[in-house]
Design a protein that fits this description.
Layout lengths: L10 H12 L6 H7 L3 H4 L1 E4 L2 E4 L7 H13 L2 H10 L25 E2 L2 E2 L1 H20 L12 E5 L6 H9 L9 E5 L4 H8 L7 E6 L6 H18 L6 H4 E5 L2 H7 L6 E3 L16 H7 L1 H20 L6 H15 L4 E6 L7 H13 L17 E3 L3 H5 L3 H6 L6 E6 L8 H23 L3 H6 L7 H4 L7 E6 L4 H22 L10 H15 L9 H13 L3
Parallel strand pairs: 5-6, 5-7, 7-8, 8-9, 10-11, 10-12, 12-13
Antiparallel strand pairs: 1-2, 2-13, 3-4
Helix pairs in contact: 1-4, 4-14, 6-12, 7-12, 7-15, 12-13, 13-21, 14-21, 15-21
The structure holds 6-O-phosphono-beta-D-fructofuranose (F6P).
The site of 6-O-phosphono-beta-D-fructofuranose (F6P) has 14 residues, from loops.
Protein name: Glucose-6-phosphate isomerase
Catalytic activity: alpha-D-glucose 6-phosphate = beta-D-fructose 6-phosphate
EC number: 5.3.1.9
């Protein structure tokens, strides 16, 4: 038996179950606001530039107090401090978890195994900056002497989603003369579409892979090298001017044929999904420039400091984590929607899917025992107004409880014309209207008062009580993006700490990788694959039969 009490046997857990059964069986947001008009103000916290209103949740002061007691009992802040100190809290991989050191100030000290890692972080940042400036200024030349016009980042998972998301988010800060494209899928169509209209002489490939063994990335990188050499009609000496690597694995980078002088390093204490503010962000840095990149790092740091020092009752990541626990564990909510009202944040939720689901999609506790409580939710969502015309129907009137985060910006980006800037009010009117409708709905009497025929009243009634968090920021700057990402990183941390799981490993992705390696020879050479189940064996046979050579 583990030495600490199982989560669901803790008195703080059963107190929450009792609270739900006794006082919060059918909570009504209309009533909660009517009896507590101060809750909008009281349930709003600030983290840097982010204003987070969580008043439209099915909670009272008592709920929050009980959730905080659970956080205290599970020592969330103790684990947080251990993380910031560089302790090896990723126990299944025996690694420190120090993405926070990636944005530490130059004079900060963060030790792993007795060594201060901050100088190395800044050495790499400086090297990235010098390289990014060379590419941006045109000083970096391709093999034929032409300047670089397109950067293609080849990576997958954490080596793709972060920079791809941030490039979209910060597009208005990018050098519009320099395009960045992202290739992740091992489907050859991805690389084909990315390079088909490019001039190889003006193309730089960034091969981003922490391990430099990921089959998708190495396969695409090899194909990209072949494409480049064919297009340039050049030998392997052309590679140096067109390929750089971002990795922790210098040996594999050299084996691939990339000069390690053109490698930008990071470390095993940076998890893939926590890595886009490391060297993995090089494509982004080239796009927005080193100064903007550092502004983004400062944004991360603002929320790191907030998480580290804000008291529990105003600690935004803690509160957001606790709210997720409230719905996931006490209301049986299975999913969590993240709905940005910003075109620039169109990839934000996709990025969060890896951050959250690869971190907290676990069913074995840190103690090695199976958990007997729900862990990470399904995270989903797309930009808000598009979602309104697709799946919001289900959020408003479906049978499932879907807590949602609404992310909105008070100002559009500077670059928009006055006419397009004016559209921002309409966008934000939708933003505010939706959370109001979700929370307060429309009663049958309100529907009748509009003269709706009685038989349609049930159809036009909105029950409301759909919980939402509203996150408002002044505008989408690099700093604000860093703040938003850090907010979610730490929210995920809080939940993993309470669920007693290791949020920093990802063993669950291994089995599929191993099986794919085993199946591939059956597809390409018709080789016998021992141990294939009858369903998969039949599917493979059909594939072989119908495959065009
Ligand atoms: O999906 C598994 C995973 O290991 C992720 O955690 C990681 O972000 C991704 O693969 C890519 O790994 P690498 O950067 O080593 O190529």
């Amino acid at each position: 038996m583990p030495d600490t009490p199982r989560l669901i046997r803790r008195p703080e857990w059963t107190a929450l179950e009792d609270h739900r059964a006794d006082s919060m069986l059918h909570p009504q947001l209309r009533d909660l606001f009517a009896t507590d008009p101060g809750r909008a103000e009281r349930y709003t916290v600030r983290a840097g530039d982010l204003r987070i209103d969580y008043s439209k949740h099915l909670i009272t002061d008592e709920t929050l107090a009980l959730l905080q007691e659970l956080a205290t009992a599970t020592d969330v802040f103790g684990l947080r401090d251990a993380m910031f100190r560089g302790e090896k809290i990723n126990t299944t991989e025996d690694r420190a978890v120090l993405h926070t050191a990636l944005r530490a100030a130059r004079d900060a000290v963060v030790e792993v195994d007795g060594e201060n890692v901050v100088p190395a972080v800044h050495t790499v940042l400086d090297k990235m900056s010098a390289f990014a400036e060379k590419v941006r200024s045109g000083e970096w030349r391709g093999h034929t002497g032409r300047r670089i016009r397109t950067v293609v980042n080849i990576g997958i998972g954490g080596s793709d989603l972060g920079p791809a998301m941030a490039y979209e988010a910060l597009r208005s800060f990018t050098d519009r003369e320099l395009a960045v494209r992202f290739v992740s899928n091992v489907d050859g169509a991805d690389l084909h579409e990315a390079v088909r209209d490019l001039d190889a002489a003006e193309t730089l490939f960034i091969i981003a892979s922490k391990t430099f063994t990921t089959i998708e990335t190495i396969t695409n990188a090899t194909s990209a090298r072949d494409w480049l050499l064919t297009e340039l009609k050049a030998g392997p000496d052309a590679v140096a001017a067109h390929f750089v690597a971002l990795s922790t694995n210098a040996e594999k980078v050299a084996d691939f044929g990339i000069d390690t002088a053109n490698m930008f390093a990071f470390w095993d204490w940076v998890g893939g999904r926590y890595s886009f503010d490391s060297a993995i962000g090089l494509s982004l840095m080239i796009a927005i420039g080193p100064d903007r990149f550092r502004e983004m790092l400062e944004g991360f740091r603002i929320v790191d400091e907030h998480f580290r020092t804000a008291p529990a009752e105003s600690n935004a990541p803690l509160l957001m984590g606790l709210l997720g626990i409230w719905y996931g564990n006490f209301f049986e909510a299975q999913s969590h929607a993240v709905l940005p009202y910003s075109h620039y944040l169109s990839r934000f939720t996709a990025y969060l899917q890896q951050l959250d689901m690869e971190s907290n999609g676990k069913s074995t506790g840190r103690d090695g025992h199976p958990v007997d409580w729900q862990t990470g939710p399904v995270v989903w969502g797309t930009p808000g107004t598009n979602g309104q015309h697709a799946y919001y129907q289900l959020i408003h009137q479906g049978t499932k409880l879907i807590p949602a985060d609404f992310i909105g910006l008070i100002n559009p980006v500077d670059e928009l014309s006055p006419a397009l800037r004016a559209q921002h009010d309409l966008l934000m009117a939708n933003f505010f209207a939706q959370t109001q409708a979700l929370a307060f709905g429309k009663t049958p009497d309100e529907v009748r008062a509009e003269g709706v025929p009685e038989e349609l009243v049930p159809h036009k009634t909105f029950r409301g009580n759909r919980p939402t968090t509203t996150i408002l920021a002044p505008e989408l700057t690099p700093s604000v993006l860093g703040q938003l990402v850090a907010l979610y990183e730490h929210k995920v941390f809080v939940q993993g700490a309470i669920w007693n799981i290791d949020s920093f490993d990802q063993w669950g992705v291994e089995l599929g990788k191993i099986l794919a390696k085993r199946v591939e020879p059956a597809l390409t050479e018709g080789a016998e694959v021992p141990g294939l189940d009858p369903s998969t064996a039949a599917l493979v046979a059909t594939y072989r039969t119908l495959r065009k050579q």
